[in-house]
Structure formats: structure tokens, C-alpha cells
Design goal:
Layout lengths: L1 E8 L6 H12 L11 E7 L5 H16 L5 E8 L1
């Protein structure tokens, strides 16, 4: 099962890289973009039988390894 894990800074955390990208987009006349947040993407393969087992393992990996829970949050998507 393939997992797509997305890690981003929490909304309450200042994101200078996102602000820099947003400023550059505005200077380049991309006026439709209101906000940019930087993040990380982790494509993984879960060697588990069944959706429930894969989901539990991906959540544990994201929570314990891929994120700093003080400043980051994660979302994920599973595919067979």
C-alpha cells in the first residue's frame, strides 16, 4: 500500500520561507495567491495487509518520526 504523507507547519507558527515565496509570487504578478506555506512530502510504501494496519502504521510513523508535534502537523493519503 502506498502512503502519501504531507507535513506542514502549524498555522500558529511563523513560516518565513512561505512568506518569501508568497512575496516573490506577488512580485511576479501572480495576484491570485493569498497565502503560501512550505512543507514536506514523504511518499512511502507500507508493507501491511489491509487498510487498517497500513493506516495505523503510517499514522505512527508520521507522528513519531516525520513530524515535530510542537510546530508541525501532518495529513496523509493511502492508495492500494
Amino acid at each position: 500500500m502506498k502512503a502519501h504523507v504531507y507535513v506542514t507547519l502549524k498555522r500558529t507558527v511563523l513560516d518565513p520561507q512561505g512568506q518569501t515565496i508568497h512575496g516573490a509570487l506577488k512580485r511576479m504578478q501572480y495576484t491570485g495567491v493569498e497565502d503560501v506555506r512550505q512543507g514536506k512530502y514523504f511518499p512511502t510504501h507500507a508493507a501491511r495487509d489491509g487498510y487498517r494496519d497500513a493506516k495505523e502504521e503510517v499514522e505512527r510513523i508520521a507522528r513519531e518520526v516525520l513530524t515535530n508535534p510542537v510546530i508541525e502537523e501532518y495529513t496523509y493519503r493511502l492508495e492500494e
